[in-house]
Design goal:
Structural class: alpha/beta
Mean pLDDT: 84
CATH architecture: 2-Layer Sandwich
CATH class: Alpha Beta
CATH topology: Nucleotidyltransferase, domain 5
Number of domains: 1
Radius of gyration: 18 Å
Low-confidence stretches: 197-205
């Protein structure tokens, strides 16, 4: 009998606080980016992929929802930090302001990924935000500055770092996943880093 693949998704989001237009209105939260680490175990082998997407200042949040919904797989386990407080609310708020067809498409995907096992690392007292490899530039003021000045490459890189860090921290807690998972992840990260170095090398095609 062929063993069914098992898929884990580590999800990170980036939001910025928009100052209120008047003193009578509260500040608003704007979804500006999302990062995904997808790890799939098939028999004794692991496959990994990591992507991050952002929207520019003035761009509609629904564009990010469409990007994300086209990439969210049917996950056996969703992993994140403060999922109910930090991840899901801005996604639902963005969907509430999106075109109906995009909102429906996204909410179906989100409900599907929340249907199975959900691991919120913030619930475990041994977890701490600094252990998730969160880049310093993901701090609110720096993030707002990078996003507001169009440094979206930096935001995407930091979202990818956070998604990978979330997955690695999960592996340290979830011994049932297997010690080979972290070894496979580290090997994939090394290959990924080598490819990026070649792409950034002077004269690289």
């Amino acid at each position: 009998m062929t063993e069914e693949p098992v898929t884990f998704v580590a999800l990170a989001v980036a939001t910025v606080t928009i100052p209120p237009a008047t003193c009578d209105t509260p500040p608003g939260t704007h979804l500006v980016g999302a990062g995904l680490l997808i790890a799939t175990r098939c028999a004794d082998r692991w496959r990994f992929s990591c992507e991050a997407g952002t929207i520019a200042a003035g761009e509609k949040e629904q564009n990010l929802l469409l990007w994300l919904s086209n990439r969210l797989p049917m996950a056996d386990t969703l992993i994140g930090w403060q999922i109910d407080q930090h991840i899901v609310p801005p996604l639902i708020d963005a969907a509430a302001h999106a075109e109906p067809t995009i909102a429906h498409h996204f909410m179906v995907r989100l409900a599907r990924v929340l249907r199975n096992n959900v691991v919120d690392l913030s619930i475990n007292r041994s977890a701490a935000p600094e252990n998730l490899a969160t880049a310093p530039s993901m701090m609110p003021d720096t993030l707002l500055g990078n996003w507001g000045t169009g440094r979206l490459d930096a935001v995407r890189a930091d979202l990818a770092t956070e998604a990978i860090g979330t997955w690695l921290h999960f592996l340290q807690q979830a011994q049932h996943v297997g010690a080979d998972a972290e070894q496979a992840t580290r090997a994939w990260m090394h290959r990924r880093s080598s490819i990026h170095l070649v792409e950034k090398a002077p004269g690289a095609a």
